[in-house]
Amino acid sequence: MVESLSTAQARRIALAAQGFLDKRHAVPTMRTFQRTLDRTGVLQVDSVNVLQRAHYMPLYSRMGPYDTALLRRAAEQRPRRLVEYWAHVQAFMPVELWPHMQHRMAAYRTRRGKWSVLDENPALEASLIQEIRDGGAATARDLDDGLPRTKEQWGWNWSTSRRVLDYLYTVGDLAIAGRTSQFEVLYDLPERVIPAHVLALPTPSAEESHLELVRRAAVSHGVATTRCLADYYRMRTDEVRPAIATLVGSGELRPVTVEGWKRPAYLHRDARLPRRIRARALLSPFDPVVWERERAERLFDFHYRIEIYVPADRRVHGYYVLPFLLGDRIVARVDLKADRFGDRLVVKAAYAEPGAPPETADELSAELRELAGWLGLSDVTVEPRGDLAPALRF
Question: Whole-prediction pTM value?
């Protein structure tokens, strides 16, 4: 008999799996960080910095105000816990997933890149790797300044070198050692980034890697459809379905139906179904809770689209809009900007969702004050756009 879940049950399961049931520590430590990373699995990286870099925000949403040096330590210092790779899109992933990305790296090598075919340039590839081997971690700008520019010899310019470096990282010939204060990628040799014990691990078969990635996606989701599981680590459904069958066969996943979901779903055997979720959090547009938009709509009845790339006069809610999670519901959305020069958090717009509870404005005001403090901003100002804006108090 297939188990049946209500939408509310599925929502609470999903939020618990993502860490919103965990008690916040007064001062988050590396142990808190690791617990949170174990829930999310990956942290999407994005260059937009109108509020805060995307990879910092899911940690804040779950842990509360924390020292961002925790993430830098985990990603850039020994023992490394994280490494950047194309795991969801550009994302931090646990370093132990490096062997499980080898088949993905091999596929990119065959295709000569992630999206478009990169012309073969073995001389440039070898030269870039040698420069890094000799000189240490470097940005594309460093290497462009330091390498010969004679087009007759190399046939490349800065744009080409940057593309080649991205290709070399994508296929695993280079790894990302960190980023500069300008958010430029620092490339280095894998053996100087990935711990030796991880590099020494045998390469799993493609089937073993697919199984591990689906297992991790299932843990992070709690309950999910095939499409949800495929999206988490950006896999193809033909890679995911055999892994699901294996996990169902072993009892690690249980087939379930979820109220309002048209597709079959799968519940992880360790998923928790709490009676209540007491969350209060602003969610980044790149948070795993909302990054698969159809899932967010099914779980929260919340239609969400990021409008960064929409012309200003056509935006509905704003440029950088964060959903506001209260309890187990998304009750509002708010367009935010960190005005660092003016030392203030600017609420460009604030909108209540249908059925938002009466305490929404007060809870959102408190959350915005806490966010401003974490960002090192002294004030919060509200612009008069959106039905919830007049009710915010600072």
Answer: 0.93
